[in-house]
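Q: What changes when alpha-D-glucopyranose is included in the input?
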Amino acid sequence: MASSVFLAGDENWWRQAVVYQVYPRSFKDSNGDGLGDVKGITSKVDYLADLGVDAIWLSPFYPSALADGGYDVADYRDVDPKLGTLADFDEMMAAYHKRGMRVFVDVVPNHSSDLHVWFQEALAAAPGSAARDRYIFRDGKGVNGELPPNDWPSHFGPSSWTRTTNADGTPGQWYLHLFAPEQPDFNWDNEEVIDDFKKTIRFWSDRGVDGFRIDVAHALKKDMSEPYPKIPGYDETHIPLDGSHHLFDRDDTIEIYRGWREVFNSYDPPRVAVAEAWVPTERRPRYSSPETLGQAFNFDLLITPWSAKKFKKSIEFNVDLAAKSGSSSTWVLSNHDVVRHASRYGLPQKANLEKWLLSDGEAPRLDRELGQQRARAAIMLLLALPGSTYIYQGEELGLFEVADLPGDALQDPMWLRDSGKRKGRDGCRVPLPWEKTGTSFGFGTGGAHLPMPGWFGDYSVAAEDSRADSTLNLYRSALELRKKSLTTESLEWVRSKGTVVHFARPNGWHSVTNFSHRSVRLPEGKVVLSSAPLVDGKLPGNSTVWLQK
Ligand code: GLC
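A: The predicted holo structure follows.
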């Protein structure tokens, strides 16, 4: 490894960084096999440097059977041969560092793939063996152990238990998987598991990786003692504040991260991390404190309806919360798990997104223009806030969800395992369109692993590059201005109409978002950027303007 892959510098670089999420299989295919790959990511370094992001975060690119889009990891310290090699990875790191961008990788500690060598060993070993203790195996209930140990559902439905088959063909023990059966949960009370993940973090840190995104960070520790409780649901509204849930956000989970912190801090600059932890907001600082992971995703705006009052409340709360925890806030509108926000904002507020997907995006009708306007306004608002912003690939093009993917093209275990009740997340994972035409719009030369709709051409990088008022060019201008305007991590609210969110940063950078449909008077100041053309000197509905005073 060349030493040039390491990027020195300010150890607080992450506090207000803009991080671009790359979903590797859908970013850029360099070898025409229909799957995005590591060389594809390297080939787009100029694109991302010109976009103006500070870092990229790579969703899993590790060896995987893709039972859950790569979140089923068969080997934590290698590159999936379908996506490249470790040498390709080093080359990619060097290219991004050379252009001054940092790199985050995803760590998936709650579960491995069932193809992981440890799980294969566990299956071959006897009940009660050391090999089985790395996972969560239990005897079944019923006369012959034919019933699962309990009725906990999996996130992808229906049960979170799968029965194994013994070497002699007889039915064996059951193992726990909070996600797909191909994703067995680790036992985080096992020392080997604890040590192995530290090894993984060192492995990638030694290769120059700057940061880690921690998948389902709140699920690692479990209370598996009997009697098993009933678990009504898995979203954070069901998680109590006292750390007493049997599966999520248990108090001792953060002990794991204290251990990781020692590893992070043994590097110069210290490696950083961001937790994906769907916990009640009050509990988020446990994951984002400087003694644990340092930062945690704040998904609040992602689930906040388009309302000035609600946005303001959420921003106020989160800026405060981040300050209390010693972290900086993160802001997120989209990622690989949710319906793209250009679509969410173009649907009626109360629309049921799962039903909308099942109707192939027909009912209710999507108002594309409105969705686009709001998405443009929203990103400008986010980028003006103190803290860091996470951008999901394709949102800079204003991409909508591909809601009409045919059932036989879908790959998401949510669809495959839940008897077609939920279409799942493939609609936001369709490969990126780089060119206006071609079978896969420049994604690659050999088609794409998910069908790309005809309208993608108009939203391709090539199409938007040449349109001054495109969403891509808005992102570029906003990111460039943001870089120049960065200031201390605070904001002051400026009095405004109830349908307007207006705040100022300490250096006189103002952001004004009009959430209503009617134009509003522009506050004083020099207009530096606007998400929509001003009309007679007024700020139109569903738009944001930045002013300098
Ligand atoms: C996280 C990932 C999601 C994945 C799940 C299981 O929520 O973001 O894509 O399915 O964890 O690993």
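Observations recorded in class: The chain has a mean pLDDT of 96.
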